[in-house]
Every structure is written in C-alpha cells, then in structure tokens.
Amino acid sequence: MGSIPKENSFWGNCLFFKDLNYKNFSAGLVAGIFIITGPTALILEASKNGNFSPSQTILWIFAVYVFGGLFGIFLPLYRRVPIVGGHTLTGVAFLATVTSQFTFHELIGSYLISGLLMVLIGALGFFSKLMKLVPKEIISAMLAGMITKYMVNFIVSINELLIVGFIPLIAFFIFSRWKLKVPPVIAAILFGVFGLILFHPLQNVQWTNAMMMPAIQLPEFNPLSFLSVSVPLALLILSNDAAVAVGALEQNNYRTPIKQIICFSGLFSIITNFFGGQSANIAGMGTVICSDDAAGPKEKRYMGAVVTGTLLLVFGLFSWKLVPLIQALPKDFISVIVGFSLLGVFGTSLYQAFSRQDMKMSTLFAFIIALSNITVASISAPVWSLLIGTIIARYIEGITAAQGEKQSKKTA
User: Fold this and answer.
1) I need a surface site. Which of 31, 69, 227, 335 has the fewest CB within 10 A?
2) Per-residue pLDDT tens for 322-356?
3) Inside any domain, residue 33
4) Residue at 317 is within a domain
C-alpha cells in the first residue's frame, strides 16, 4: 500500500471545515439521527432481555456511540472519503435474541473474539472470500427471520397506540410517495415524537443528576459463545455494514480502502468491547446516505460523515443523561421506532433471500429456523440457520460458490 498523499492525510489540511456545506451537513444529520434512534431502542430491549443493570445499559450505549463517533471522525478526515462510523443495527437485533443466554461479561468476551476475527479478516484480505462461503441469500434469510418478530410487534404497537401510531405511519407514506428530501424513516420518527408529545406526554422520567464515569469491563470467555455470538456478529457486521458501505462507496467511484475499513472496524470494536459495547464499525446505511449525490460535491461529502461522527460522539458522552428519557418512552412507541428503523432492512432482506428460484428450499429453511429462535446444544438459531441453509444450498440444491458469485453480480 503506497503512502497517502499529504493533501489526503489527517494533518494535511487543518481547514477542513471549509468543505462543510448545507448538503453534506444535512446528509450527516440524517445519518446521525438514523443511527441513534432505532439502534438505541434495540439496545434497551436487548439489555432488558439480558436483565442488565442500568449502569451496564448506559455503559453499552456510551461505548458504541463514543467510539463509533470517533471512528466516523478520524477515518473520513484521514482518507477524505465519506466513511460513516457507528455500530451494527442488525448485530444489536441479533444480540437481543441471545443476551438472555450469557452474562454481560461473557458477551464482552464473545465481542472481543468477533473484533479479533474482523482484524484478521481485514489484514489477510479475506473479506470477499469469507462472504462467498455463506451465500448472500442465506444471510439475508437468516436476518429476515430474526427481524420478523420486530415487524409483527411494529404493526401490533401501531394498533395499540392508535393516533400516536398512525401519525408516523401516514408521514412515512407521504414522504415515500413524494420523494421529499427528508428520508421517510426519519420523517416517521420525528412525526412520531411530535404525536407522542401532543397526545401522550411522558411522565415519571427518572432523571439522574450524577454523571456516570465509564469503567473498563473485564471479559469472561465461554466457549459456547464463540459459535453462538462471535461468528454470527462478525458475519452480520461484514455482510450488512461493511459490504453495504463498501458497495455504496465504490458505486460513487471512491477509491475505497477496504483493508483499512475492515481492520479499523475490528480495532475500534475491540476498544469498544472493553467498555461493554458490541462494536464500533463502518455504518452501512449511514455511508449510503453520506456518499450519495444528494450529499453535495463528491470531494466534500466526507464532511457529512464527520458531522454524523460528531453527533454520535455527543450523544454517547451524554448517554447517562439521555437514556432515562428513552427508557420513559412507552414500550409500544419504542416498538414503532424499532419497526420503522428495521423496515428497509427487512424488505431488502426478504427480497434478497427469495430472489433466486433455485434456492427456495435453503432460504426457506434458513428463514424459518431463524424465526423459530430455537437453541440446540447451546447454539442459537442464527447459527443453525446459516449452517443448515448453507448445507441445503450446497449439497441438495447444488449451489456452488461460483454460481452464487455470478448470480450476485447479476442482481447487484
């Protein structure tokens, strides 16, 4: 890898604020709101499922947003590329299904293994090779199966909230129909908050006056968590964040430092793990938003990623003050926010999972197994979904790696 030109180095141009404009600022703001809203609600649900203490929950949120924000400030300034930092939305959705099976510190141990796997994969250039082992359609089917529960709760909660539920739904349809500048998901969340304030004011918010100082958490290693947590988490980050982000950058004709992205995602994740978070990595949808033409001139879009990183950093630093507010939200409202945040991922996952006629059996079994949320031999449903789906695809349907790669290029 050649040396980085001075004008593209972190210190090469200290006057980077001159590249900030309305378009990249707006894109960064939208990406930041997207990364903060739904994933935070999912973390609260995962924490509740695992019976984590309030301090552990706040520490989790602090870690992923502070270090995800730093990732999204450092790398874009260093490379002048809109590499948005954050943490994995789909990974948290997955963790919500397994936090009840392991302790907080055992999960930290599994996160560390996941981070090390990413560093190794990035350093050795195994990213594309690894993704070929498990067909993309099987990963999508597994993800769709995991998310289905949230989408069912999404519809049920809209019905329970009535006016407060239907206001964001109508806003979502309006902004989708007329292709307005604000993404439909963000519009739905903002209108939902407005409806909540108007018709369902919050009560009994347990504000805290004491600032919580972060503390290093020691990991505990459970061999069962390697297959049940570490491998699926690394796969989800690589397939649903790194792959999406790299695809968006290359689509917009950026020179994408793939090895650096994967390695730094692993390294920042390892630091995050010691403070209780599952990852700090490149954000798939955030990078899609900030690298798009709507984010302004190509050479200045990196500032959108910096704006997002700054927003995440501030949110993480003040999470001790903001989490009680989020916890006071009605359970059904949180389900609605989570539903809107996962709606695009769910639709895309379903489409990709069942897009091939020659993989109907394997993707169907992968989907149903993930949806069942079963645990066999202490190994969770997502792992069985990937394993059984891949075996059926390879040995019953006769799908080879070459065929999978060829079909993926056709549908890209």
Assistant:
1) 227
2) 777 777 788 888 888 878 877 877 888 899 899 99
3) yes
4) yes
**Measured on CA atoms in the order 23, 28, 34, 36, is the torsion positive or negative?**
negative
Range of 50's domain? 20-201+216-411
Burial of 69 (0-12, 13-18, 19+ CB in 10 A): buried
Query: What is the enclosing helix (H) or strand (E) of 161?
Result: helix 136-161
* Residue bearing tokens 């500032």: 303
DSSP bridge pairs for 281: 86
Q: How many domains are contained in the chain?
A: 1
Q: Is 142's pLDDT higher than 50?
A: yes
What token pair was written down for 296? 């302004």
Is residue 4 in a domain? Answer: no
- Tell whether the model's pLDDT for residue 214 goes beyond 50: yes
- 206 occurs within a structural domain: no
The residues near 2 (Cβ < 8 Å, ≥ 6 apart) are none
What angle is formed at CA 115 by the lines to CA 113 and CA 116, rounded to 5 degrees? 65
State percent of the chain over pLDDT 90.
36
**In contact, 298 and 255? CB cutoff 8 Å:** no
- Pairing assessment for the beta strands 375-376 and 379-380 based on DSSP bridges: antiparallel
Q: Is the whole-model pTM more than 0.85? A: no
CA distance 183 to 342: 14
